[in-house]
Amino acid sequence: MTDGARTPVVFIHGLWLHSSSWQPWIDLFTEAGYDARAYDWPGDAPTVEEARANPDSVANVGVDEVTDSYAKSIASLPAKPIVIGHSFGGVIVEKLLGEGHAAAGVAIDAAPIKGVLPLPISALRVAFAALRNPGNIDAALSLTPEQFHYGFGNALTPEESAELYDRWSVPSPARPLFQAAAANFNPHAQTKVDVDNEDRGPLLLTMGGMDHTVPEAISKSTYKQYRKSTAVTDIVEFPDRGHSLTIDHGWRGVADSILGWLKEKGL
Known about the structure:
Blueprint: E1 8-12, H1 23-31, E2 35-38, H2 48-53, H3 63-75, E3 82-86, H4 88-98, E4 104-108, H5 121-131, E5 140-141, H6 145-151, H7 158-168, E6 172-173, H8 175-181, E7 203-208, H9 216-225, E8 233-238, H10 251-264
Parallel strand pairs: 1-2, 1-3, 3-4, 4-7, 7-8
Antiparallel strand pairs: 5-6
């Protein structure tokens, strides 16, 4: 089978992780018969090292800018892709799917979209790294190892969390966090998603039972936003997983679950 006959899959990273962190997923999905790839956010550097050396290259990037960049890249593909995103990448997945750019979507522990009301303390603690200073809105910020362990690696050993931080953590724009925080007070919020679209493809939401950054309450509330649509919306829980579930030792279990869902949906 040539790549032209394969279903395209596009992986979308969230804040504080580099797009190259998807490489094991790309390899797995390619072996499973998909044409898999990961595009960068606007301003992303080619490597983790370069991203750390040039944080200002991603400063002041917002949700719409990222969505528009992915929509443009997707338009060049031979067919509408399956889009799979983590955290704020999950928000981008939901927007792309709602706008008709994708055939299906998987939002892994996705950040809150407009309409999601729960604000668990752990999520606020993670976001406070940016929100504590209004001047951060147009800046790029890095997490400390301690912040990364709380927000991503709390379900891991300190050693594995530190290893993942050293390998994948990069500076990210703070603007999406401010946009999400103000979304329910802004009629033109960039995290608004067309949740009522009945013509979109299937959507799978995931939630990690130990996720501090996107606790289950946020994922469950996101799921409820789609209740008026007759389009397929499913949700699956990984009860013992934190926000690092796409990059830690258990990533394969999450990926296999998603592959099984795609097969079940004929995708």
